[in-house]
Amino acid sequence: MTETASRPTLEAVAARAGVSRATASRVVNGGDGVREALVERVRRAVEELGYVPNQAARSLVTRRHDAVAVVVAEPETRVFADPFFALQLRGISKELTAHDNQLVLLLTEGRDDHARVGRYLAGGHVDGALVFSLHLDDPLPGLIRRAGVPTVFGGRPGWDDGHSGDVVYVDSDNRGGARQAVRHLVGLGRSRVAHITGPLDQTSAADRLDGYRDVMTDAGPRLVVQGDFTPAGGERAMRELLDRCPDMDAVFAANDLSAAGALRVLRERGRRVPEDVAVIGFDDMLPVAEQTDPPLTTVRQDIEEMGRLMARLLLRGPDRGTTAEEGVTPSGVVLPTTLVRRASA
Predict the structure, then answer these.
(1) 328 Cβ partners below 8 Å, 6+ apart?
(2) H-state helical runs in the chain
(3) pLDDT at 210
(4) How far is CA 143 from the centre of its chain?
(5) Do the bridges between strand 224-226 and strand 250-253 make them parallel or antiparallel, or are there none, so unpaired?
(6) How far apart are CA 306 and CA 334, in angstroms?
(7) Closest CA to 131 of 92, 163, 99
(8) Cα 27 to Cα 43: distance, rounded to the nearest angstrom
(9) With 50 as the cut, is the pLDDT of residue 114 above it?
(10) Which among 257, 251, 263 is positioned nearest to 228, based on CA atoms?
């Protein structure tokens, strides 16, 4: 048997630093009113002893948990299969880690999960919530509002509950990016440009459809097929488009995964890309866009930076507001998009 060293206490820190317990507590918990020389002594004692504050006790003093809930309104099978979520979570995690905050991941599979998430947030376990991939009929916004936790949303709010005007959010210029993509296809001389949408109960997909229609003002409904942001959805939509409009000469897919599915079907049907059909996606997720055959022309949105900004706005708290370098407004921030040209268009 081996003996384990007892955990250093706050009293031991105070004794080592030669200060009172109250002074040591103020320093450890980030309080004010302590002379810099004493602060340095306490910090040195903490380091020498390897003292780790008791989080439960610290929360009673500071009323902070140093933990943030990240709520993804999708089933786990989707979250762990789509690199979009990995990129956004990486951006969030980097920002929270830089501020010594823990990430608590909450996924929703159905209505029971919504209630569970609402109860957890209302229980005072976290200092705030970051929520993304919402659908228009999702009850989460109402549950979160009733829970009373500070929240930043990923994506433009699309629900109408009388409170959406007060929502803080981070989004990309989905409509403008879609216009860039379709204008590029038209500039290549393509006249029968089709669109594979995302799920239209999400504002990002609806905005990209609007951007497509801004350019293709005369496109009929036969050239638009709904997808679901997945490769399988892109395959289904591409088959339907080819059956409906065999003379189509270009496709704008609402995300890279849908475009990858569309490329597979075009290859199966013997259509050359880009000679017969040009293809453009949306996201510029490098694990997807650079590995398709041919490599995918796409609209780039900075997914990781979206995650960082969501966390940054939340951690800024009630003082968040406009900053010259970020263009942040009290309601949120919209990041620009750019067209990345590769071989598919």
Answers:
(1) 309, 313, 320, 321, 322
(2) 10-17, 21-28, 36-49, 55-62, 76-79, 83-98, 111-122, 140-147, 174-187, 203-215, 231-244, 256-268, 286-289, 303-316
(3) 97
(4) 20
(5) unpaired
(6) 9
(7) 92
(8) 8
(9) yes
(10) 257
